[in-house]
Specification:
homotetramer; about 300 residues; alpha+beta; Gyrase A, domain 2; 3 domains; 5-stranded antiparallel sheet; flat
Chain lengths: ~300, ~300, ~300, ~300
């Protein structure tokens, strides 16, 4: 669908409603937000706003919530205390186009509604994810899970892109050949296509589970490609439920979890004791995590 | 909230939206639909219409769905073939007030979002479900799970109502006494209140899981009180997604499941054979279920 | 792991337990059951037997279940009446190796616990699903979802196998080249591998949800490859919970759903009326489904 | 069932199994652990041990887990990093007897399998939860959600117990009267029973979701009565999966979540700055939570 078609559709389907409306979401509804080389995110529908969370919380927590009089404060309180059910009162529906290997991470989030394009019933397009040259180098340098001891130079990155284009191009050519010339079923023909091929999905999820998705997938440990989608969805959340977005960023996304042992170590440091990995009683890995979590590098060396 | 307040609110919160709108749902939004003696159902929000189901199905089933060109036919097809995921693309949020014993059945449906009024934080109102005189008699006559061998006369029904009023009235009096005069915590004081006391809940669920709820709870085996709510929600579904409602009623709510053995019995009957429980190979219970399912009483006696 | 290693392990880990035991499951525990060309299913653990379902049902349905005195009859009753929660009291854990395109269907069943081999952390083996020659022809002939108007001959099938071997072989060669010679991360290198590559998963699910999985995936509409796995799991279920297996086969797997309209049509036929698609009021598709469901072909032509 | 019957049953059902066995769980299997005045917890079955978590994690995280060579270290790592799926590989089944008001909190945990005693089908016993005298006073003193400004003396507590006994005794008497003398159905008669009446449930849940339950219900904010059950289940978890128990206690149960703002405040304190609520930028509530979380009371006054 062309962008001007979407604009036309946006004009035509304007209606009255008594439901709560998020003006910022209305502005982006149906618009394709490009992702990676062939993908996109499109908001199809939403239910509720920050006010809906407050409304439900005031039923649940009754008297207790009267003390927190304004909505922002109440939402902060709910987020801080792990009162998650009011956030389930908002819902969003996205249309997402992404490579299959991204979809395979995405689908692991079970509390969501999904309708995916079926390659048993329809022919897949000739669209495969090929990373950008710079991205290949960056990912290889920072990725500790891969083999990245050898620095990635531009020549190598270019060879990689060439290989990816060749492998996926060849696979797609054979795919159409098997479909058109050899009468093979779609369900078997598609088995030779690489996991970089793009698929499409309607994905509907409540806000609480969306935030959990974003906590994991906008995290630096998530693979770059799904992180791109997650970061864009974070912007959508900011437009949709701005109080919730702020609370999430402060109290969950950027919060850190400190074990009982580490609370003790921090207290010893506040008393002026010099703490090192050796006298901390922590393993090397856990020590490093502790230093990172409370940003203690200035204090422990 | 008074009904004219709701009307005022309805006027004030009218907005423009680009989302799909169900005109029939807009008419009933926020209005309290009275249930039993103190309860109600109120539609707070909804997402999607019949068109949203079609939209998602056409992504999923692609080419296969082109053959079924009009929306109603496609929805019938999806319902008949158990393709349930497109129905998950619609969502509804209800505000429901019901007795706790009804809530205890309701909450067993796990795939839903729930915020319930908390009797730990707030004081419960003096509102208890007392069945109507006629209902007591009816329920006792038809209920096979209870002891109903002795016919229920009006005098007995009146005594029952008196007992219920006395027990709940006494419990509520002691509840407020313990709260106000004896400084007992709300969380302990409420433990003496009967399960007929009313509670309130915000309940949000997708259409597929709602239909499953309705299949079980609008069924004649469900307790009368939850069935009242389920039947009213069926009317809401009819207003909201009329094609889906028709498909559900025909292919699921009023459909019957026939085992392989019973398909064979039906074929023998079509061939002219006289089938009885004795020569059917079915147990008495299963035979009766078979006769009821295919409405065969005229043919087997 | 070699089969004799498994046998040794089986000997060594024999223990006493007070838990209910399924002797037939003990016989197959840990043994690899080969699937397709490189896959397998292995039972890792199980909880409960038919007796556990009965045990839970007698708590739930109390008095009502006393009438059905023996276990088999009670399990039949539960299955027939859609009382599904007692079946959730049994659990199974499988280790399964399957192609990614099979896994993508498998994972859609959300009520399960999953740990999958990660191609971000580990290198995938050079194992790709290549269908057998005969299977290619069979699948193309019967598959209505693919383009199968042109009969598949052996020469074409052989060409298809050659293409599949070439495409996956080439992809795997480039995969190892990018990993070993070009220092690419595993997470990017694997994106060129086709969805026919094998993955492994630990999969744990309760019996009710397993039966739902089997209802859909052992169905003739499921793709052949996942159907192979589902049919094998059906055999495992038969060994594990034989009463439940029989009840499932009779009342769910091989049962048919008949709409209210079709119940009426069947009654008209029993009365001796000649029913055709034209006078049935059904669409062509629904008529054919009705005839198939009640196996009426002898009576309608 | 009498305890010696259980012992006899324990002797009789001893079997061989190849499944992994937890010796400590075998010791407590089927034994009733008394809870509150009439309740109990009984372990009915379990699947897996710490070793099962490690087994699944090594499949999922492959190479990455080789660095952490011993099981305890790997389980700590998984817990610390929120890798929750391997913990889903263990399952437990409990038989629990508890008051209905406890059950109403319990059932909110949706990812579990439940079979509850049905008061529609069976008659409830004359068993109601009556708190102990001391407990009434303690709960009223510490409970900030109730009205506890007036100190609870023993005389008041005794009056409360008397009221509770009278209200539940009266309700039960009327319940049996309506059942036996007035032919009322069970499903209606039970509506006058208070939520302190005991019910029974078979409850099956995976370890990850059990830990989430324990995080919330063994927390000091949970109502005392459900906390008793949660604390006892914590002991069961310790016997069952000791490494997981330790990791859970250190990294989740007793861990604290620190927001980005509070990490900054802690750094300022480490630099020697005097931080107070006033110069912290935090609300009073959040400040108090921060001080409690990092146990800073010695440093901020």
């Amino acid at each position: 669908m062309q962008e001007n078609d979407i604009e036309k559709m946006r004009e035509e389907c304007k209606s009255d409603t008594l439901r709560v409306v998020s003006p910022e979401m209305e502005k982006i509804l149906y618009k394709k937000i490009p992702m990676l080389d062939h993908g996109f995110i499109r908001v199809i529908d939403y239910m509720g706003t920050d006010a809906s969370i407050v409304q439900a919380a005031r039923v649940s927590y009754g008297v207790g919530t009267k003390k927190v009089q304004e909505d922002r404060g109440l939402i902060n309180y709910l987020m801080r205390h792990g009162h998650t059910t009011p956030f389930e009162m908002c819902e969003i529906k996205l249309h997402v186009k992404m490579p299959i290997f991204v979809m395979r991470h995405w689908i692991r989030h079970r509390t969501a509604n999904v309708n995916e394009y079926s390659a048993r019933y329809s022919v897949l397009n000739n669209e495969f994810y090929i990373p950008e040259l710079d991205q290949i180098a960056r990912q290889s340098e920072t990725n500790k899970q891969g083999k990245a001891d050898v620095a990635m130079d531009q020549a190598k990155a270019r060879e990689i892109v060439d290989i990816m284009n060749e492998v996926s191009g060849n696979a797609y050519e054979k795919y159409t050949h098997m479909l058109n010339d050899l009468s093979l079923t779609r369900e078997l023909a598609r088995t030779i296509l690489p996991v970089s091929v793009y698929t499409e999905v309607y994905w509907k999820i409540d806000l609480h589970n969306l935030l959990h998705f974003l906590k994991l997938r906008a995290d630096s440990h998530a693979q770059y490609e799904i992180r791109c989608y997650a970061n864009k969805i974070l912007e959508i959340v900011k437009a949709w439920v701005p109080f919730t977005y702020d609370a999430f960023m402060n109290y969950r996304k950027n919060s850190v979890s400190i074990s009982q042992k580490c609370v003790e170590l921090n207290k010893r440091m506040l008393k002026g004791e010099k703490i090192t990995q050796e006298n901390s009683g922590l393993s090397k890995g856990e020590w490093q995590e502790f230093v990172n979590a409370l940003d203690l590098s200035d204090f422990v060396n």
